């Protein structure tokens, strides 16, 4: 198209551009404004008008385009199908909640009895029933407290038990948890001093014993949850540390309450406390499979010191978190557990079925073996046999930008949709998303065909 025609078409389109008010009067957008808010719908309409102004869409398509690009909710966060094969993907909000937890959250959205005993009408401890669920699930725990995340649990322990004192920690356990955050920096920020003992690869109980004294706040043992040191290594067990006569805080990271047979090297809260830990800290949204929160379990006197410390108020969790946590602990298996225990033969059957179905609509799809991982600070180095639908790599960006967004991983020039992290009931939605991309691709958009 030459320059004059382009300008003429652009000017023509601009003349025929509908007014914002006229577009907003479309019944579908009136309904959406009631649901999502008028400001949000107006901004979606403005974007559609802009696309018409540049000639990307015809002027008469503005309302349809606006309707098609409305967000599902006013919340901003968009649901994603996790087909990465990483069970706990930090960028995708770690553990997906169980249906029981989602329902508990929905039920807690309005006014709730989070700090009220409805039987007596008197004030009660915040989140008492979630705490009771934790203590029941971890028999050696005398008490429990819930904070905003695993890092907050450590900060509260350090502040309440070791501010102005020393935290004794093995040199091989000074972990960076991700996004540049380092546990040593976090601990020192509380006013505690770190007393490092041992070496990167070897630390014994004697190394700890040698530095204990009146300045000791507690001994900290951190689970190396995102790396592995192998070879000539040694570390002191919780049982050995418990004999030193000072409080021992064990950061297990992943939040397993009991041993998980599929991950024999992952520490759990029950085991840690049975071995003699005074307190165990963990995240709620890793292998426990619940909402983001930090768990503190153990000796009643220490839990009380933490929960009554002024800082506890700044780290306290919302009623929605408490509802989701309790439903996760008391309710049916969390999705992360289902993913962990998925039968590879079943995953393969799903992958073959999906691939065959897609080939039927001219998509270059095949079932392939895959390796899934726990991720998100749990079980480093552990891989889980899995199966994936393999697509041309060009499918990855449009799948990611679609609704629902489908996130796979690109490996060796192919886009793999790993089914271990996809709930089986989402298979049909995944197939639909892939078919939509395939259709656009064969119509000659930017997606290309492999
Ligand atoms: C994940 C992790 C943390 C941090 O927990 P968040 O819930 O992300 O704050 C701390 N320590 C260990 C060992 C971890 O694995």
Give the cofactors and ligands.
Answer: pyridoxal-5'-phosphate
| Low-pLDDT segments, ≥5 res | 1-8, 444-450
Radius of gyration: 27 Å
Number of strands: 17
Largest sheet composition: 7 strands, mixed
| CATH architecture group name of the largest domain | 3-Layer(aba) Sandwich
| 3D shape | globular
**In angstroms, what separates the terminal alpha carbons?**
29 Å
Overall average residue pLDDT: 92
Tally of contiguous helical segments: 19
In what order do the strands lie side by side in the largest sheet? 4-12-11-10-9-5-8
Instruction: Kindly identify the CATH topology of the largest domain.
Output: Aspartate Aminotransferase, domain 2
- Estimated structural class: alpha/beta
Number of domains: 3
Q: Provide the CATH top-level class of the largest domain.
A: Alpha Beta
The share of residues in helices is 25-40%
Percentage of β-strand residues: 15-25%
Query: CATH H-level name of the largest domain... which superfamily?
Result: Type I PLP-dependent aspartate aminotransferase-like (Major domain)
